[in-house]
Amino acid sequence: MDYNYKGLRLVYSGTELTEEASATLSQEYNIVNVGNVSELEAYLNTQSLFSTPDVIMIEIEDQERVFSVVNQIKNNPLTSGLIIVLLNKVPDTKLRARAIKAKIHDLYFYPYSMEDLKDRLNFLIKFKLIKPNIEQLAVIKKQKEYQIPRPKRLFDILAAGGILLVLSPVLLIIALLIRLDSKGGVIYKSKRVGTGYKIFDFYKFRSMRPGADQQLKDLSALNQYADDGSGTNAFVKIKNDPRITRLGNFLRNSSLDELPQLFNVLKGDMSLVGNRPLPLYEAEMLTSNEWSMRFLGPSGLTGLWQISKRGKGEMSDTERKKLDNFYARNYSLWFDIKIILGTFPALFQKEKV
């Protein structure tokens, strides 16, 4: 379906919008330049249900003032659904983390490609018009629904079933140690997004203390977001995570915490090999055409990026997503076997993934 954006209003707050940039955006949007942030606030106070803009772009001059206005926008029922894009003159890691925490739709640093910005706005507008939530994405992508090939599915059932049978004593010992190590259940279940944006319960041996999920927001603000310079990072990684138990560190370092996912494989939620299923909040950031390809191939227990650079230093967000896209386009049973064989030496390398 094609969308006509010309009737949509884009409000720009700042002084750096050049005539060329304005001409590019005005081809598809009605541009309203309101000046500084104070004038933006005054402009929004005059809007009604029928005149509220669709997109707000704000140049950051006074960071505290800008985020104060953003907070007002999000707390007002009339404007809470507006798309907000921030523009800053220089890259700033702390600003990026703050923008993510405030759920800003996007953040760009000068100089940026106007074409890239326009493409991003087009996607955000389309996404707003069809109003999907993550549960609806499977329906939106249904025309490209992935069906696992029979040979791959048969291989998954036989391999996962055989591994579970052989390792059943190990599973029982780990379960007992978890119960002795800390309070809480043995199995940790979380909602993950797999193939075709399908949501399922993802199983792991519990490696964290109870209530760890509630601590994630506070910890992520104090630690690092993977940074590839795009402003739209999705893979969150926290160093020296204090929520992990002593036994949990061992289980993670040895990847033994992943063993219950073999039951996910038997159920058909995922495959032995594929792109790692993501938490909902991360999957929601990968809905553009560029990155949604990763959800059109199988999701899996291990994958291409896990063996490509593991133990060779940090891998950027973009590198991981490109490898996921490559696998989605090129997977095969023989490719899967090659990845499985590469997984075993990767387990003993230093980097935690």
TrEMBL record:
Name under which the protein is recorded: Lipopolysaccharide/colanic/teichoic acid biosynthesis glycosyltransferase
Domain Bacterial sugar transferase residue range list: 152-348
This protein's UniProt keywords: Membrane, Transferase, Transmembrane, Transmembrane helix
Chain segments annotated as transmembrane: 154-178
GO molecular function list: phosphotransferase activity, for other substituted phosphate groups
InterPro entries listed in its UniProt record: Bact_transf, CheY-like_superfamily
Family of this protein: Belongs to the bacterial sugar transferase family.
Provenance organism: Pedobacter cryoconitis
Pfam families in alphabetical order: Bac_transf (PF02397)
